[in-house]
Design a protein that fits this description.
The chain folds into 2 domains: 66 residues; 92 residues, Alpha-Beta Plaits (2-Layer Sandwich), CATH 3.30.70.1350. It is 53% helix and 17% strand. It starts with 8 loop residues before the first helix and ends with a helix. Helix 4 links the parallel strand 2 and strand 3. The protein has a 3-stranded mixed beta sheet with strand order 1-2-3. It has 173 residues and is an alpha+beta fold.
Length: 173
């Protein structure tokens, strides 16, 4: 699951650029030989079409990955349900929710999540729990940029509603 430099969009784009050049040169030589020795005049356009198809397939994969980064999509190789389940099992965490994972670039994922901590957790312990959660997602899911919001109660309590929301809606009063 680890993200490595060989998955970088930049490296893959450079590879396809060089591969296109190399295949183009090879195609010219092979087509020229086919025309010269066997009078196969269709060899040149056929080589061009084959090379174009190969390069287009590679470029479409690059385009898909690049659009995913630009749209801040969740990386395909990160199972957000597994991440939430693992975070919920961290010592001191009652639940993990409001989990968001997105791609910063083609090799780096980021994560934010709320961690509901055990009642009575002090600030120092909350920091230790968040540090443990950060190490977990880095080691197990290759997410090196994680931000956690520790909570002392469930999100839907009136004390933890979004700014501008109606506190009476959450409690039914």
């Amino acid at each position: 699951m680890a993200r490595t430099g060989d998955r970088s969009v930049n490296v893959r784009a450079a590879f396809w650029h060089l591969a296109g050049d190399a295949l183009g040169s090879l195609g010219v030589v092979v087509a020229a030989a086919a025309i010269a020795w066997f009078d196969l005049e269709w060899a040149d356009p056929m080589a061009s079409i084959l090379i174009s198809v190969l390069v287009i397939v590679g470029v479409l994969q690059l385009l898909r990955d690049t659009v995913g980064v630009l749209l801040e999509s969740a990386p395909a190789d990160v199972d957000t349900e597994a991440v939430a389940a693992a975070l919920g099992k961290v010592d001191g965490v009652r639940s993990a929710h409001h989990l968001h994972v997105w791609a910063i670039d083609s090799t780096t994922a980021a994560l934010t999540a709320h961690l509901e901590l055990e009642p009575g957790t002090d600030l120092h312990t909350a920091q230790e729990v968040a540090d443990g959660a950060r190490h977990l997602v880095a080691d197990r899911f290759a997410i090196d940029h994680a931000t956690f919001e520790p909570e002392c109660h469930e999100c839907d309590t009136p004390d933890h509603l979004p700014v501008g929301s109606d506190p009476h809606r959450a409690t039914g009063h």
